[in-house]
Amino acid sequence: MDTNGRSTSPGRRVLLRGAALGAAAPLIPAAASADSPVRASRPGRRGAVATYRWLGTSGWRVDVGEENGKAKRTVLVDPYVTRFPTGLFSGDFDAATPLRTDEALVRRHAGKPEVVLVTHSHWDHFNDVPYLARSTGARVVGTETTYHLLRALGVDGGQISVVKGGEVLDFGGYVVEVAASLHSRNAKYSYFAPGTLHAPPVAAPKTVSDLPEGDTLSFKVTPTGGPSALFMGAGNFDERAFRGLAPDIAMVAVASSKATYQYVPRLLEALGRPGVVVPVHWDDFERPLSEGPHADSGTDLDAFAAEVRRVSPRSRVVVPDYRTVYGADLRPCR
Questions:
Q1: Alpha helices (H) along the chain
Q2: What range does the domain containing 62 cover?
């Protein structure tokens, strides 16, 4: 997660000149047509239908192979919807904040997932995963740290797949490629709760500080026939591991500082300049999803979109909204 303990003013909001947050309007670069298609990752083959729902932060619900409005297969990425306050966005962060899960809210947003992908183990990515795993039997794919935390929280080890990066997993109908990645850095070149677990913790996690990062991953999900989507959970990346992924859509975590050298240019170059770029992890994740997204006051989405346009003028930038279901081309479903 992007928790770095920086002080923010709760009343400040970033105003998007290119798109209103509530409307989730796409930002179309001048060099690209509004009707430009997403390039197919498997040309000449008919792909399964896929829809995307942003769950806030870096969380997504991907429904693959929908028929008559009913999803056949659901994949979740970093599903954190409980969103309890820690003081992070008011400048009074309390690392001893107790963990809790709003089970009814999680069920409402998560559907019936068969796979849950966890980029790393900070609370704004991991918190709701143990409940989902226990209640649905979904397979969880994540790091060794994620494995040990889940075991400590009562999840059956047989449900958990430990990955490191480089794995290509065929789930029949969609493929998940795992890429080693990196956590974002704050202005002091550090981040909250670093560290990894190589054994279960002595006691089950109870507070946000009990959930270390535990290394960071990214996931590329490709339904049969494409298009493919890359999901990032933090505003940094392993340039060598990302080369060759070439996703059609990239869910890009917005960096919280300038500590990472040329983050956006290097990232888009490594990914082959995706057709669609979707900024994520820019919202205040302590406000309920029902309010719609509010930008973290330290985030300038206009600047991010402008940098994407400069580096990759043919990419379409889509600012997502919690309340919108997007089709395979990341345009709102009608």
A1: 103-110, 123-126, 129-136, 144-152, 239-242, 263-270, 301-311
A2: 49-321
